[in-house]
């Protein structure tokens, strides 16, 4: 990284625009940044850091108030930096969060941070989002903000504290600079595996204890202190013996039940026959006792059957009589209705002809009133039209007033619609760009999700690879062992193929008195070796398969990293949400463009329409006024004609209604007279027919017929009763004729209850025997299962103990416990190795700055009171040959030791980050503690730093440095804010 130009505005102590030309300052490779205390020297470095990362180093970042107190509140704090980073020239402009005065009212409002990155070499699209800019800078620099603050901006006092820090504090700083996360993950993985192994061992031990307890519960015998398979097998054999005894008892009980069941069934059959015979005899006796009642029912049934055909005639006569009564009542009501009307009383006893003549006379009189009534019928329509036209006239007047107001407001509405249309068209033009940005963000989001899945798969496949490798090594060792045993036992293998009388393939003898024998571990044949070789080959194939899958996943993750870059899920989700919101707003605006265009056109058209409506309504008002005058004249003429015709006694409508009521009442009376006479005739005819039929059927009169009639239900009930009696008598006689029933009635009584009690007793005995047998058989089955579980659990316990001991030891070791005498965790061990590299690089510079007196020494000793060690720093004093603590160094010695340590750390971090060259480095303060000779030595080291093209910026207020370093940037403190002044070598000379 090389800095070119820095501009600050309203930032820290710099109120106005302040520019630093680093190209001019760094021409000689070394420049001095000096000024009075508090002038703002460190702020220049803060501005560089803020431009790159959006934050400032150390504790100053906790107070985010970067707006200059010397600047006006409305001035925007801003930093602009031009630099070449990673071979690409760029310009970054950043503004922090700040508050500005409100545009309306009092108080302030918060302004969010903003930034932009412009590629001055034209190598890519410009960036405006804070996360994208941060990712781009981190990717090009190859280091995080914390690393940059430590290795480029060597801060005030930080490395003096690092030099004297405890191992714990030093570890925290080194972890920020060096990635040891994977070693911490390994420590956690081993601890997790040890915990899971301990849990598995506990579970397996608990299984053995549980199974032993179940065997004790079933076997009924106490377990020994160390239960074994012989004890479990003895419990099983005892249970099997008891089960066999229970089975024999069950068979005996089953035979007793069969005999008792046979006796019980025979007794029940004979008792049932006896019961049926007794019931049949009792039924015949009851039928004989009820014979008189049955005869009476039979007679009543016969009379009801004769009366049934005459029931319709009786119903007909009763219906005709009821109709005659109803007709009389209707005639009486019609007569009363006519008498109550004017002129109707004279017709109360009139006949049909008189009533007809009266109706004709009233009808003729009503016809004479028809013409005037027709004219009068139109009067409500005239009145209604007058009211309607009057209301319409008033409504139209109000409508004309409203349209006048609308016509006055329409031009303003048209102008507002045109303004909305202009804004919507502008938003629509942003849609393509926003869609492209969102598509890029969605690709990154998809890649982030895929990378998470790949990481999970990698974690899983890594475990599988370790397992496959162990399995492969185990099968390979087994194959080697089998081959060695086979070679050693080859003689035994040849001896296995000898047959008496046949020659030996080795010596040719046909007698084989002492053939070789295999060793105690058993003979290893060709088939055994082939099986082991096949197992080894299968394990190798399995190992290759999971290793290939692991490589594919790692390649996949690499490709996803290229897509993702330095993006994070939170930043990408935030970007997606913002883009989606902006795109949705733009699309909604685009969708509204046609509607807004139509609204503008509609507003213009509405103006013309309203004007036309006003003209139309004015014309309609004139026509409506003329029609009202004509209608009012017609209404007056009609009222005069009606008054002259009626003389004021009745209205035309009232007289015509009176005549209509008389005609209607007289007509109803005529109909009632005719209906009454017809009903009387029907009643008399029905009475005559009923009397004739009753006499023919043997009934004295209609009352006798009515008494003999019965309902169909009663007839059906009587018939059923007669048939039931006949059927019961036949069934009883048939039952008593049965030979088996006669034998049962003659035999001795059978006690079925006693037989049932005997059967129940033997059944209960059988159930108890069956229960004992079931329990014994179930206990045998459970014991067989538990003994098998006991054997399996005991067989699997030993390897679990061995694995747990191994995992627990490793977990303790990498965590700095157990047999780890230095109490160093694996992560601390790795950091100690990095610290050794730092001390080697730093010792070269410390040796030079101390005139060969000092060099750093790494200490891995355990700390006081058993604290973890491994990150100790000491110095070797070549003058005395002793190793000393860093706290014994003087102030000047502490400064150049800290500087050497900082430079060494910068070298190692640079190498760790892929060997990137740090073209610019700043050293902040500390030179005031050096004497002239020590200062010469330090300046020599700084000259070496710039010899490779590196630019070194020294931040100090020490006056002697202004004489030694010609290129200077002076920060001048004033009441209205600080400013900078550049001094070039020519000016000084």
Automatic annotation (TrEMBL):
TM region positions: none
Keywords, in A-Z order: Coiled coil, Exonuclease, Hydrolase, Nuclease
GO molecular function: ATP hydrolysis activity; exonuclease activity
Coiled-coil segments: 236-270
InterPro entries, per database record: P-loop_NTPase (IPR027417), Rad50/SbcC_AAA (IPR038729)
Pfam families in the cross-refs: AAA_23, SbcC_Walker_B
GO biological process: double-strand break repair
Family classification: Belongs to the SMC family. SbcC subfamily.
Protein name: Nuclease SbcCD subunit C
The species this protein was found in: Gordonia bronchialis (strain ATCC 25592 / DSM 43247 / BCRC 13721 / JCM 3198 / KCTC 3076 / NBRC 16047 / NCTC 10667)
């Amino acid at each position: 990284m090389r800095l070119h130009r820095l501009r600050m505005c309203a930032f820290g102590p710099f109120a106005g625009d302040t520019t630093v030309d680093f190209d001019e300052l760094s021409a000689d490779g070394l420049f001095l940044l000096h000024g009075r205390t508090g002038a703002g020297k460190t702020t220049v470095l803060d501005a560089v850091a803020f431009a790159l990362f959006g934050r400032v180093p150390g504790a100053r970042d906790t107070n985010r108030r970067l707006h200059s107190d010397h600047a006006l509140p409305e001035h925007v704090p801003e930093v602009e930096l031009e630099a070449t980073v990673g071979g690409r020239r760029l310009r970054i402009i950043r503004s922090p969060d700040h508050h500005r005065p409100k545009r309306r009212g009092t108080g302030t409002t918060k302004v969010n941070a903003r930034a932009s990155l412009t590629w001055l070499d034209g190598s890519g699209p410009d960036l405006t989002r804070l996360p994208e800019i941060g990712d781009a800078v981190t990717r090009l620099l190859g280091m995080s903000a914390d690393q940059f603050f430590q290795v480029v901006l060597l801060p005030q006092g930080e490395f003096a504290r690092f030099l004297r820090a405890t191992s714990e504090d030093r570890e925290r700083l080194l972890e920020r600079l060096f990635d040891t996360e994977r070693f911490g993950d390994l420590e956690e993985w081993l601890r997790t595996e040890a915990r899971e192994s301990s849990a598995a061992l506990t579970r397996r031990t608990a299984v053995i204890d549980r199974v032993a307890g179940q065997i004790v519960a079933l076997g009924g015998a106490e377990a020994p202190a160390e239960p074994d398979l012989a004890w479990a097998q003895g419990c099983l054999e005892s249970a099997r013996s008891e089960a066999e005894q229970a089975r024999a008892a069950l068979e005996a009980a089953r035979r007793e039940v069969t005999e008792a069941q046979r006796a019980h069934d025979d007794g029940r059959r004979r008792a049932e026959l006896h019961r049926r015979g007794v019931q049949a005899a009792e039924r015949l006796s009851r039928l004989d006792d009820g014979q008189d009642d049955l005869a009476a029912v039979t007679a009543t049934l016969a009379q009801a059957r004769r009366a049934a055909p005459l029931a319709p005639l009786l119903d007909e006569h009763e219906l005709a009589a009821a109709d005659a009564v109803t007709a009389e009542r209707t005639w009486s009501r019609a007569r009363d209705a006519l008498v109550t009307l004017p002129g109707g009383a004279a017709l109360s006893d009139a006949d049909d002809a008189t009533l007809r003549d009266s109706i004709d006379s009233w009808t003729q009189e009503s016809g004479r009133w028809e013409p005037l009534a027709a004219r009068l019928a139109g009067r409500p329509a005239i009145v209604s039209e007058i009211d309607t036209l009057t209301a319409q006239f008033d409504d139209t007047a109000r409508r004309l007033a409203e349209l006048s107001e609308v016509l006055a407001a329409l031009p303003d509405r048209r102008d507002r619609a045109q303004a909305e249309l202009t804004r919507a068209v502008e938003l629509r033009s942003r849609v393509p760009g926003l869609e492209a940005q969102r598509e890029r963000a969605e690709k990154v989001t998809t890649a982030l999700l895929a990378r998470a899945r790949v990481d999970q798969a990698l974690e899983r496949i890594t475990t599988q690879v370790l397992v496959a490798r162990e399995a492969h090594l185990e099968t390979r060792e087994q194959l080697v062992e089998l081959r060695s045993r086979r070679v050693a036992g080859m003689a035994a293998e040849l001896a296995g193929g000898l047959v008496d009388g046949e020659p030996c393939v080795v010596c040719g003898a046909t007698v084989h008195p002492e053939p070789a024998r295999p060793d105690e571990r058993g003979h290893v044949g060709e088939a055994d070796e082939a099986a082991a070789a096949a197992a080894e080959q299968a394990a190798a194939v399995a190992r290759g398969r999971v290793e290939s899958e692991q490589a594919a996943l790692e390649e996949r993750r690499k490709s996803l990293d290229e897509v993702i870059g330095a993006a994070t899920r939170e930043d990408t989700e935030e970007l997606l949400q913002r883009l989606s919101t902006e795109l949705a707003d733009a699309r909604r605006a685009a969708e509204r463009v046609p509607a807004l265009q139509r609204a503008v056109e509609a507003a213009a058209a509405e103006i013309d329409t309203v004007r036309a409506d006003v003209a139309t309504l004015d014309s309609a008002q004139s026509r409506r006024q003329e029609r009202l005058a004509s209608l009012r004249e017609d209404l007056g003429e009609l009222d005069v004609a009606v008054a002259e015709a009626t003389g004021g006694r009745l209205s035309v409508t009232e007289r015509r209604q009176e005549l209509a009521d008389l005609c209607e009442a007289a007509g109803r009376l005529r109909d009632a007279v005719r209906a009454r006479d017809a009903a009387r005739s029907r009643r008399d005819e029905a009475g005559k027919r009923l009397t004739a039929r009753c006499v023919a059927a043997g009934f004295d009169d209609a009352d006798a017929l009515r008494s003999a009639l019965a309902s169909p239900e009663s007839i059906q009930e009587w018939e059923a009763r007669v048939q039931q009696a006949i059927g019961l008598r036949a069934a009883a006689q048939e039952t008593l004729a049965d030979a088996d029933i006669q034998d049962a009635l003659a035999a001795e009584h059978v006690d079925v209850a006693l037989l049932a009690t005997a059967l129940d007793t033997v059944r209960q005995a059988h159930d108890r025997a069956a229960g004992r047998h079931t329990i014994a058989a179930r206990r045998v089955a459970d014991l067989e299962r538990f003994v098998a579980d006991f054997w399996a659990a005991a067989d699997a316990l030993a390897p679990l103990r061995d694995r747990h001991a191994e995992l627990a030891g490793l977990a303790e070791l990498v965590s700095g416990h157990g047999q780890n005498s230095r109490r160093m965790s694996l992560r601390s061990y790795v950091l100690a190795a990095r610290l050794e590299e730092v001390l080697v690089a730093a010792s070269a510079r410390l040796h030079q700055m101390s005139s060969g007196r000092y060099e750093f020494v790494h200490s891995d000793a355990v700390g006081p009171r058993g604290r973890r060690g491994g990150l100790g720093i000491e110095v070797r004093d070549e003058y005395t040959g002793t190793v000393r603590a860093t706290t014994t160094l003087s102030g000047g010695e502490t400064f150049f030791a800290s500087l050497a340590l900082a430079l060494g750390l910068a070298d190692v971090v640079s190498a760790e980050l892929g060997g990137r060259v740090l073209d610019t480095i700043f050293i902040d303060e500390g030179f005031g503690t050096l004497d002239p000779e020590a200062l010469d030595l330090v300046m020599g080291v700084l000259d070496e730093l710039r010899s490779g093209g590196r630019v070194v910026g020294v931040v100090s207020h020490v006056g002697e440095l202004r004489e030694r370093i010609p290129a200077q940037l002076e920060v001048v403190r004033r009441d209205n804010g600080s400013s900078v002044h550049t001094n070039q070598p020519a000016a000084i000379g």
